[in-house]
Amino acid sequence: MLKVGDQLPGGTLYEFIEVEGNGCSLGPNAVDIAAAVAGKKIAVFALPGAFTPTCSAQHVPGYKAQAEALAAAGVDEIWCVSVNDAFVMGAWAREQQTAGKIRMLADGSAEFTKATGLTLDLGSRGMGLRSQRYSMLLVNGQVKTLNIEAPAKFEVSDAATMLQQAQTN
C-alpha cells in the first residue's frame, strides 16, 4: 500500500473537459500521471464514487471552497480521483461546478487505485471495486502526507486537513 515518502505510481487517468460557449466537449483526455505531477505540488483526494452522498455533499464542495486557500499555500492543482468513467466524472464536474478549481480525474478500470493499494470492495453493495476515501499531498510526485479514512468515515481526508498540511509541507 502507498505510504508517505513513496513516489506516486505511474499510469493514466482520464479527464473530460467542457468547452465554454459552444457546448462541445473535449475528451476523454488521457492524463499521464508521472508527467502531470512533475514539478508540482498537488492535493489529491479520492473517494468511492461520483454522485454518492458524502462525496457530493461534503468532499468535493469542501475542496472547491478551499481552492483559493490551497493555491495560496502553494498547491498548484487539486485532483479528485474516483473509479468512474470520464463521462461520469465530467457530468459530476459540471453538476458540482468545479471548472478551474478541481480536476475531476477518472480511474475507470481502477488501475491507478489498484497500484496505490487503496482499493475498497463494495461488490456486496452493487458498486464493485472502488477507491477508499483518502487524501494526499504530493510534491513532485512524492507522497508528503496521506490521510486514509476508516470505513464509512469522513474525518481526515477533508479540505481543512489538507489545507493545514499544505501550509506546512
From TrEMBL:
Q: Which InterPro entries match?
A: PRX5-like, Redoxin, Thioredoxin-like_sf, Thioredoxin_domain
Query: Please, one GO biological process term?
Result: cell redox homeostasis
Please write the reaction equations for the catalytic activity of this protein.
a hydroperoxide + 2 glutathione = an alcohol + glutathione disulfide + H2O
Signal peptide extent: none
Active site residues according to the UniProt entry: C55 (cysteine sulfenic acid (-soh) intermediate)
Sorted alphabetically, the Gene Ontology cellular component annotations on this record are: cytoplasm
* Coiled coil recorded as keyword: no
- Which GO MF terms does the UniProt record name? thioredoxin peroxidase activity
List the Pfam families: Redoxin
Domain (Thioredoxin): residue spans on this chain? 2-168
EC numbers on record: 1.11.1.27
Family that this chain belongs to:
Belongs to the peroxiredoxin family. Prx5 subfamily.
| General function of this protein | Thiol-specific peroxidase that catalyzes the reduction of hydrogen peroxide and organic hydroperoxides to water and alcohols, respectively. Plays a role in cell protection against oxidative stress by detoxifying peroxides.
Protein name, entry field: Glutathione-dependent peroxiredoxin
Q: Which organism is it from?
A: Roseateles oligotrophus
